[in-house]
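Please check the following.

. . .
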Amino acid sequence: MTGGAGYIGSHTVLQLTDQGYDVVVVDDLSRGYKDAVDPKLLRVLDIHDTAGLVRVFEEKPCDAVIHFAAFIAVGESMRLPEIYFANNVAGSLSLFTAMVKTGVKHAVFSSTAAVYGMPKTSPISEDLPYAPINPYGESKAMTERILNWFDRIHELRSVCLRYFNASGADPDGRAGERHDPETHLIPLLLRAVKTGEPVNVFGDDYPTPDGTCIRDYIHVTDLAQAHILAVEALLKGAPSKKFNVGTGKGFSVREVIQSVERVTGQKVPYVISPRREGDPPELVADSGRLQKTLGWSPQFPDLDQIVATAWNFALK
């Protein structure tokens, strides 16, 4: 697994080890946390080091790779597109090249709903075309296209999981969300509760029932389980496929604020700020293909449940 010291990666490591899988984590720790991974599992390595990756595969032969290692901040990608293409695209190419050199034939790729850009329909199906509106989304779309070619030419089978809004924390409190800087709504709202410093709500004049953006929040443990089901399907001979991973239900920013207030018993201080460029009014997944094909279903579909696990981790 690459990027296993990050938010979603560390939760997936927990789920894999809980279910008896043998895991090796490759992470350069530039945006992950050393203490998020059992040191026995960790190999500190830059994924641009193709020869180093080949050595890892030769030292510890594996059946499949789950590829998380990526930069994920849309705003940063609009300022520094070069690092997004270098890390997310060139880094992925290095990894896939090392897999081909060592005969590893199965990959699960951490993709994103950002490949859809500003879709005109909701919920979003996987049949919509690529239409990214920022370098982050473009970098993920480019990597999906690379995987298409590696499938045709090298028979490297892959599942691309297009995430919606990953959220929450391990129900047992073993891991949680701690980006630096933090850009995700739920941890920002929880930080505002703890510190009293108001959080920015970007726009309240969208064409939605309460004027704020609507997003599909999926618990990180449910997301981790989707990766495991994808690996298992590939190992059983499933073809390459792309899936949305979301609950199919959207919540507005105001509704998330209300959930945080219910869970914490405290008011969330916030201020209304101008819209952010490129924020679609609504992003909600049609995850029917994932549920039908892989038998996945969310175990934490309730927003208050999601927030409660994040609050439990924040209190630690």
User: Anything to note?
Assistant: The domain at 7-166+218-246 is CATH 3.40.50.720 (Rossmann fold).
